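Our consortium's second objective concerns turning raw sequence data into structural hypotheses that experimental partners can test. To show how far this objective has progressed, the report includes one record in full. It was chosen at random from the queue rather than selected for favorable results. The single chain below, 280 residues long, was entered without modification.
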Amino acid sequence: MSTTSRRTVLTALAATAVSGPLLTGIGAAPAHAADDLYASNTDLYTKLAGREGTDFARRYKRHEKADAGITAAYPFHRTTVMAPHGGGIETGTSELCLGIAGYHPATLTPRTADAPLYDYWMFEGLRSIDNGELHVTATHCDDRVALSMAGGSLNVLTLHGCKADQAGAPAQRPEAVVVGGRNDTFKRHLISEFTAAGFQTIDGAALRDLAGVDPQNIANRTVLGMGGQLEITTELRRSMFGTFTRPGRPVSTNEVFDRFVAAARSAVARLEAEAGQIIL
């Protein structure tokens, strides 16, 4: 097993200044592609060539799998967890991505011995301000590693941030998670587990902008052509950490974080136990 963090400089194009709305990333990044400064990840990587590691980062982990047997059956990869707008873009989603994948967000060591570990991929904003400019809508995510990991997985679970009013959460209770994606079975398990864990859970089917049902959404670019998407309100994400800053979040996760992670992992386990998850 190995952890990979790419710091490659792509093409020798100078960074291009593009006008557009300035967003802090604390709440939510743009909901539509029309609001994005960059048409795709490739567009961003090209125009910000040389600024990986300062403006943005990419982190991922693939677990080694091998089937060298003739008669025995060996486990195969099923689920990948992704944070397409991590770091300072939709704050808290990087840490949740790592936690649900089974890793401690500060040390990248397994959180629990002998517990399942899942592959993960994330794109992160590293700026001190204006990380929202780095948002690329999920339907335009064309990072080749992300596409290859999604395309080699039966399931993908993506983590996003939204505002309470986008989620339709009441002002008196803004902490909520919206469950979307094209995999209705996955959605059912996620809704069940989050509700049982005490979280205000909203079906994304009632919210067009947060439904996550576009086939081009990275959550749905799987072997099965469907996956799961979570849109988590700022208030709920903030409640998961003692210190809601970039250096503080990985080392200050709390009981709410642990409860959310456990619910998501239980939903993944239930999904992977379904008959449709068996490759004959």
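The partners drew two points from this record. The mean pLDDT is 89. Strands lie at 2-6, 56-62, 79-87, 119-125, 155-162, 177-180, 201-203, 228-233. Both points have been shared with the crystallography group to help prioritize constructs.
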